[in-house]
Amino acid sequence: MEDQLTLELLSKCVSHLGRSDNGLQYLYHHLSLPNSNLSDVSLLGNYVHLQKLEVPHNHIADVSFVRHMPRLLIMDVSHNHIEDISGFEPPIDLKVARARMCGDGAALRSTPPELKTSRSALLRSALSFQEVNMSFNRLSNMDFSSYNSVSKLELDNNGFTEVKGLDRCFKLTHLSLANNMITSISGLDTLPLKHLNLRGNQLETMDGLENLTKLRILDLSHNRITSLIGFRNLQLLGVINVENNLIPRIEECKHIAHLFLLVELNMLQNPVKEVQDYRLSIIFLLQRLTMLDKEEVTAEEKVEAINRYDPPLEVMAARDHRSHLVYQLLQPQVLHDSTLPSLDLPYPMLVLSGPRACGKRELAHRLCQEFHQYFAYGTSHTTRGRYLGEEDGSDYHFVSQEDFVDLVHMGKMIQSMKFGGDMFGLSTEAVDALARDGLACCVPMELEGVLSLKNCHFEPRYVLLLPSRVDQYVERLRSRGIYTPAQVDAAVSRLHLYVTFHQQRPGFFDSTVVCDDLDEAYQTLQRLVKDYLLLEDQDDGEKRPTEASSSDAVPAQAEPSAVSAPTKPLDLLDLSYRTYASRIQAQLTPQKSALELASIRRREQLVRQAIEGKSPRVFTHLIKRSAHSEASQFQLPDPTTVYGDSSSDESHISPLPPRSGPAGPPGPSEPAVSGGHVKDGAGEPEVGAEGRPGRGAKPILPPIPPGRRTPAGPSPGPSPRT
After folding, report:
1. Strands (DSSP E) found in 311-377
2. In 309-432, where do the E strands start and end?
3. Burial of 708: CB neighbours in 10 Å, binned 0-12, 13-18, 19+
4. Are 666 and 681 in contact, with CB atoms under 8 Å apart?
5. Lowest pLDDT segment from 126-140, 458-472, 692-706
6. CA distances to 49, 73, 164, 678 from 25, in Å
7. What's the Cα-to-Cα distance from 545 to each of 346, 410, 526, 566, rounded to whole Å?
8. Residue 595 and residue 66: Cα distance in Å, rounded?
């Protein structure tokens, strides 16, 4: 137990041997005396060459000896009993340096001989006191205006209510004033602070910190802060600690969302922690975070947060499609007309997509009027109000929010989307009504609806309508007089969304049409539709419909000869007028190899025979072949003998014959049909064929039932869909 510093103790604690300023002597530059129970260290006043002094955890109350250490750079006097340092002055060499630089002879003559060193040494010593640690003492007042060379200052756990003179510390980068009684901060605007610790004070606002533009780490924990306003100019801030404050709402994080370098945030023990989904909300608002509340932010959390609060369009479309599938499966299952255009082709649809007021609805109506024998307008449902001139049932089915939700819950929607706060959706009945009439569906749709529709079983052709002149597009929006300025701005931003989406997703849309002028856009769209329908004008001016040959396996190879309007009445019972799906799908069918085409023909022939009741099931074929097989080796069946000749009419990809037409003779390997009994080659009835529902009838499955477009005539018999 020692109270006074002795030479013996001092000699044991010095280190870092080096040369003096003149280079003629060897001196020790570091002194460390922690936990030595010292109260009197006046002996240190004789050691003027010390550069680092560490005397923490002692009982020192007087540090006036430091003024005689002109070369001192680092001083640690924390955990002592220092109460008053009113007489504490910076080392004398600062005054000497100023006097020598200014030529003050009187000051130089009063300088002690041991401090009269070279000019360079004095200039170097003027950089003294770079780091000062006076934490855990009893200080309550201090003026640091003379310490303009200090770069790191720690004054934790004292009794400061304010610290004077810090505005003169032009090199101060690290300041720690934790666990004091500071209620406000001022005088720090001109400092190059990078690390500021104000933990455990009585701060309520961020006033005084707005101009610390070089600040990177800020600790404001254990205060009374209720708002995060005041970070506007702190662009370099990377770490914020506001633990144990009074921040009530997640929205306060919007005030720091512009800090692009912010990677660590601690908001533990704040009222905001009680908010539901607190962590995901913060991660969504501050997507650059790597640490939140002392826990690492994972990539999975970031993806979950984005998908919950601002999901990409694809995610929203996938969710909507999943909901529609679930609700549809909960309903009694029915066979829709839109799923039966033919055995091999999907129901044909044409979708016009584009931003608001680009003319997609007008163009869709014009197309349906001109190509009325092929297309009809698909009327969607919406919850928005009716604009001037719009008709219910023609432009939209206008319904309430509750009715729209009921339609979704009853599984009656194919796709739905939310746009501008209103719901839009295409129902199954809207498409089936057109399918019953033997018509394809033409429907205008926003981008979200296109993404949702691409998830379902339909395979439409998608045409993108885009204005190329933004100023003309804005003028068109304003001229309508139904859009507010905010809606106009939103529509312009949507236009950029369409352009960006189209550029980043080549091939997403089948075609793109510029719609600055609706008449020119319609002419372009008209040519596209004729290409889709395999229609073209004849040189002689005569116009007749294109007939896709039912005996051709690949419709795209047929010679197209078509027109937009026939000169003679259409015979709607003619098979060629009911196979519009083949004509529309001809160019969409990808080119297949001969092997793939042969496989498709065999499978479709087998399905067609099973539907018509001409062929036993596949496993019956296997049983019969194994029962009558007399060959010693197993051989693959010849497609021409088992499934019929692939070059025959029935083996091609074509719709079935009309319901009232004859079924035709059976193929070479087909079993005979007699009185509804299916027989094999030996003339014996197939097991189980006697009890097959609908036996004795000849059910024919048309590509699309003719519906009300078929003229009145004798009933063709019961439909297999009933």
Report:
1. 349-353, 375-377
2. 349-353, 375-377, 380-382, 396-398, 413-419, 422-427
3. exposed
4. no
5. 692-706
6. 11, 20, 40, 120
7. 22, 40, 16, 6
8. 97
Whose CA is closest to 635, among 646, 625, 644? 625
Neighbouring residues of 163: CB distance < 8 A, sequence distance ≥ 6: 142, 144, 155, 177, 182
Q: Which of 29-38, 565-574, 590-599 has the highest mean pLDDT?
A: 29-38
178 token code pair:
């934790």
Buried b (16+ CB within 10 A) or exposed e, 677-687: bbbbeeeeebe
> 38 with 24: CB under 8 angstroms?
no
- Who's near 103: CB < 8 A, 6+ residues apart? none
Rounded to 5 degrees, what are φ and ψ at 60? -75, 135
Predicted local confidence at residue 238, as pLDDT? 95
How does DSSP assign 140-165, residue by residue? Answer: ---B-TT-TT--EEE--SS--S--BT
Q: Is residue 548 within 8 Å of residue 576, measured between CB atoms?
A: yes
Give the whole-angstrom CA distance, residue 179 versus residue 632: 98
**Nearest 5°: CA angle at 541, between 540 and 542?**
95
Q: How far apart are CA 128 and CA 399, in angstroms?
A: 80
Residue 654's identity, in one-letter code, is S
- Segment 126-184, tens digit of pLDDT: 446 789 999 999 988 888 877 788 899 999 999 988 888 888 888 899 999 999 999 98
3-state secondary structure 183-202: CCCCCCCCCCCCEEECCCCC
User: Three-state SS string across 251-316, please?
Assistant: HHHHHHCCCCCCCEEECCCCHHHHCCCHHHHHHHHCCCCCEECCEECCHHHHHHHHHHHCCCHHHH
Contact in structure between 258 and 284 (CB atoms under 8 Å): no
Are 648 and 609 spatial neighbours (Cβ–Cβ below 8 Å)? no
Q: What is the DSSP letter of 679?
A: B
Both tokens of residue 403?
């009715």
CB atoms within 10 A of CB 438: 25
CB 135 within 8 A of CB 114: no
pLDDT for the residue numbered 95: 45
Question: For the segment 629-647, what is each residue's pLDDT rounded down to a tens digit?
Answer: 333 333 333 433 333 343 3
Which pairing describes strands 217-219 and 131-133: parallel, antiparallel, or unpaired?
Answer: unpaired
The C-alpha atoms of residue 568 and residue 469 are separated, in whole angstroms, by: 44
Query: What is the percent of the chain with per-residue pLDDT over 90, rounded to a whole number?
Result: 34
Burial bucket for residue 15 (CB in 10 Å: 0-12, 13-18, 19+): exposed
Structure tokens at 109: 């003559």
- Max Cα–Cα distance, the chain, nearest Å: 137
Q: Could you give phi then psi for residue 234, rounded to 5 degrees? A: -90, 65
Tally Cβ neighbours within 10 Å of residue 561: 13
